[in-house]
Amino acid sequence: MKITVLGCSGSVPGPGLPTSGYLVEAEGFRLVVDLGGGTFGKLQKHCSPFDVDALLLSHLHLDHCADFASLTTFRRHHPRPPYDPRERRLPVHAPSGAPERLAHAHAASRADPESLEDVFEFFPLRRGEFRLGPCTVEVAPMRHICEAYGFRIECGGRSLVFSGDTAVCPELVELARGADVLLADTAWVDRGSRPDNLHMSGREAAGVAVEAGVGRLLLTHVLPWSDRDAVLADAAGVFAGGRAELVEQDGVYEV
What we know:
The chain is of the alpha/beta class.
């Protein structure tokens, strides 16, 4: 598997940094995981949006799904699509309420909501496993201030776990157990124990990686006002051996 970082800024964009979005490619299958503000333009540098095979949305905060509106416009109004998007709808696996929530975000006015199911096929996320092309996707609920999920994506004997946004929780440890790569929400430097169900620090994400026995830790979703070097130092002090690193915008990582 290969991960391309479409955006990695936490909560709000940074200078030249879109918010969360990742292109995961495995055996010719293209899966987009989250589609935050600015990521749709980045996606087009790597492939046609018509070539995306499926979309996973970890939760419905705008920094993880804002560019869904752009994707909708593209699929509905592109003058020369390679196929009929209404005949070949894009599968979207997202939290409950996503069809209505995303439709209202795209509507011309509050009084004029619309269905997006002409070009998308929505599947509500729940704990468990399902297949996407050559991949097995395991879903687990995370600890955030809204309905939110983490994903374990496996293909060809390799495994990638994406935490989405979450505080430290047993569900994430179990999801990440023995994974090759953990792509983890690490918004800030360590702040001590604060059970606010928002995000993890670098130290907390590294603690999850150690407990779960993962092979490599990729730190993402760092807030623009957080000290990136301090976040990395927090993680490296716990997850030793140089196996923790900050993801870079437009970076490509092999799993």
